[in-house]
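Aim 2 progress update. The chain analyzed this quarter is reproduced below.
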Amino acid sequence: MLKGIYLTLLVGPVVAVPVPQLVVDALTSVSVARDTKGVCAFELSFALNNRSPLQTVFLLASGSTPLLRVILVATVNGTPEVLMDGVTTMIQVKPGTIPGQSTLTVTGEDLTKVMDSNLTDSSGTPYPAMSPEARVAMIIGKYGMYGLVPLVIPSLFTDTPVPTEKTPSHKGSDLQYVQKLASEAGYVFYIDPGPAPGMNTAYWGPEIKVGVPQPALNINMDAFTNVETLNFSFKTGEKVLPIVYIQNQQSKSTVQVPIPDINPLQPPLGATALIPTRVEVLRDTAKLSPLQAISRGLAAGARSADAVTGTGSLDVLRYGRLLKARSLVGVRGAGMAYDGLYFVKSVTSTLKRGEFKQNFTLTRNGLVSITPLVPA
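Predicted structure tokens:
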């Protein structure tokens, strides 16, 4: 088995290809940030001299191609993982302190940037008799050239408009419209790179906090410790009770309905969940169907349910694999209050020669684990 950590860099207009060895030799650092709530971004730093061909590889290529595609693949102990599949957004050259030596910095975002460009503004396009999930699948299908495979989860409360009553139309860029439909259904939308380079999964569906946990993060366990730092905080007084408005279409009267914190796709990970301390009234739900309003309320309640937050860092080689965002992971050695399963909210990977580290953020709804054991 191939031990250690290896990085593969692919660059191209639409179809990315491996870069020449001289480009890899000039690469000094890589940073990739994946967050469940923000933009997934990357940054590449290259050592640059006055005669370096990198002056033309990135600068001229970006000038001729509005969105230059970049794929990063990290191979850890023989297992390849796609760190990022995105496009460049900015290229900067910073003069160095030594004559003839500069730093070329390439920054970019994941493929949601392609869906958010001005070229994808299809405002006014009608979608007669199409449910939200059908519209999303149709929009994602336009980006097959980037390897996007739609994974669209039908809403539990599908609302297909009747053409004689209403025909929905596209508003804004493709990304803005897909995110709007996700928000109305209480869903999320993101693009997950992999499993193979050049392939991506465009997920539109509920935020899922179930599944097979990743190997445990161990702290204060002597030789079994595999994280460098891990700190926890417990926030109280921030949990809200969503109240949605449901309107009777005939009488136009509205009823306020409180939404309890019950979601089968986001089961509690802590035994001592918080009690709501304030109310959040979702007045705009009156224009939705009753089932859609309930979905919106469930999503609003889930956003404030995470009271426990853990932040830390680890060495990938010692951990033995990449820690992935949007998945569960176990924690051991932190004490009875904080041991157990967590949802990985964000991961920032930083790779330099001889070093590969990750900073991460974990969340869950309360203290004390509901499981006696976590996978090692």
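The longest helix spans residues 290-303. The radius of gyration is 23 Å. These observations will guide the mutagenesis experiments scheduled for the next reporting period.
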